[in-house]
Amino acid sequence: MKSGFTAATALALAIAATTASAGVVISQEQVNQTGAQKTDQTVMVQGHKQKLIDGDREFVTDLDAGTIYIINPKRKEYFQPKFPPTGMLAMRMIFGGSTIELKKSGSTEKVAGYACQDYTGGAILAMHSVNVTQCVASDAPGAKEFAEFEKLFEQKLKGSPVARKGEIPDGIPVSSSVTTASVPFKAPPGFPPAAAEEFNKKIAGHKPNIITTTVSQIEVKDLPADTFVVPAGYTKGKDIEMPPNPLIRGTHALPHGAAPGAGAAPAAPAAPAAPAAH
Fold first, then answer.
1. Whole-structure pTM value
2. CA 147 vs CA 7, 109, 142, 156: distances in Å
3. The pLDDT of residue 92
4. In order of start, what are the domains of the chain with their CATH numbers?
């Protein structure tokens, strides 16, 4: 009995060690419900590194080095934004809901065969309301590795405009939804009511933008080191244009004389220039 127990324990430890050193590859589909646009995405995490393949852009994050690279394979170019992110990359993260505090709800679901716990959260950002829902699978393959990366990423972002709020859900989001809607302008004292009314009429026709992301497959496997580096021969671009975030309808032109963010919550940080959706 004793030797059998020892052998079983050794086998379990060997399996655990192998799994702990492996990476996790998450295949998912993102859909812009408003425009019925679909995009395949792949998220790869191993240790303190992550790679997001989003259409024709790749985002590589190395938390130990404190770097993020935006890679364009078609043009064989890369760009290295600041870390923590600023500019358009920060705006993508903020309006993608990554800074919003999520709280566990009482409901559970099953997505792609994985049991998951629902989380919800919302905030007002630059005259937009952003509401996020996630269903997080804590027992999915690679969930521990994914959550550990996310928690370290949270620590690295503290004190920055893209700092995350609240606790990081302990697992992999197997489904998520981000809904962005325009918020009516509330005129400050002394502001012409007619101008505020005219502005609100213009934005009243804007339908909420809804982006859903659903996991189709999760694999645990060892990823080669070159997964998380800029390929040899790529040139560093001075200004690689970031694709617009479909969650951002563009900055509304406020009524003449209104201060940015007037009547609403503080605006998202004005960005100088450039998950990673995480």
1. 0.76
2. 30, 19, 9, 14
3. 87
4. 23-236 (2.50.20.10)
